[in-house]
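Running this now, will post back.
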Amino acid sequence: MGKRKPPGDAGSLFTPRPPLAERLRPRSFSEFLGQEHLLGEGRLLARIISQKKLPSLILWGPPGCGKTTLARLLAREVGAKLITLSAVDSGIKDLRRVVEEARRAAAAGQRTVLFIDEIHRFNKAQQDFLLPYVEDGTVTLIGATTENPSFEVIAPLLSRCKVLVLKPLSPEDLRRLLEKALKDPERGYGRERIEVEPEVLNLLAQAAEGDARVALNLLETLVESTPPAEDGSRRIGVQDLERVFLEKPLHYDKSGEEHYNLISAFHKSLRGSDPDAALYWLARMLEAGEDPRVILRRIIAAASEDVGNADPMALLVAVAAKEAYEFLGLPEGELALAQAAVYVACAPKSNAVYRGLSSAREDARRHGALPVPMHLRNPVTALMRALGYGRGYKYAHDYPEGFVEQQYLPDELKNRRYYRPTDRGFEKTFRERLLKWWRGRKG
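Update: finished.
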């Protein structure tokens, strides 16, 4: 007896149907949606297509915006052989195989396009391996990444490629895609009797957040989970969306650029005294699963760097929020983060301490280890006293108001001013006090 073939093997009676998103993948540029800034008349990709000259490219964009499809269509347009690798499960051994295959193709007069999905996952050695073969044209590289290539792709390889930034698809583009899926008799649901309320398509397009794959997956789940009526038709309304609108995480990568983008927006909102924006970015990060301690570090930094002595309580509130979060945990601890963020945003601002430390550090580096003035040295031994340590030092508490004017900086820096308090918040009190104490001090 012959061996039985497993399901899905050649000769099997059952072949699984590809997912809707794969079936609807554009087969030509006429079906491609979005990226008009690259494919519009006179734009870069439009010129490449018309001239049949394809340079090495890095396609940088969010998931589901068409990077893989674009690579396939470009290779087809220039008549090149396309070899696809995923950086997730490929290594130098696979790259060597591709190079040999490309050399054989070149000997036969055919060009090779190497498409590497998630190229940011290749390490430096793997990216270095590609350099000479991209340089001499053995392969035309098209790399796809969701991460900022300036962080994830080595500079020599990046310099040999043109970086194209792809945008998320608009809700209008996604709605057209969903309508096509419902009408297409070959690849979609055009042969079935499916009625979908118009508002359902609008909501699906919004929920997908620019990702065509997500939009089609949502539609497929919705259709396949809707039982047909007695006449075989399916009617889908807004009330049916609960089946597919399971809570999904917002786009966020704790180690990628979006992490730094949101943290930056949050800090700048605190500095800019906008508590509403600060709360929004805080909520975005919490919803995406950011570690609250990362957020707390930013609040504490802003309290010191941007508020400073204009409101010394800001730092205390920020540190107290850290203690409250560690004591309460989630979700109650999130309120402490929000309270501290709002306090720091609403506090008067001064970076006088930050600027003062920066200036002092510059002098410390420029002048090196200047000697401590003798009157400031502590005479802990008889020899030190004999050498003049501490001689002439004025003890502040022996004077009215606990202050006496004397030199505390080295001679080379005796007239330096590092801390220049503003007239905002509590720092105005510091400024007035220092002007009163130090004769001749300005501002």
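The first helix runs from residue 20 to 23. More later if anyone needs it.
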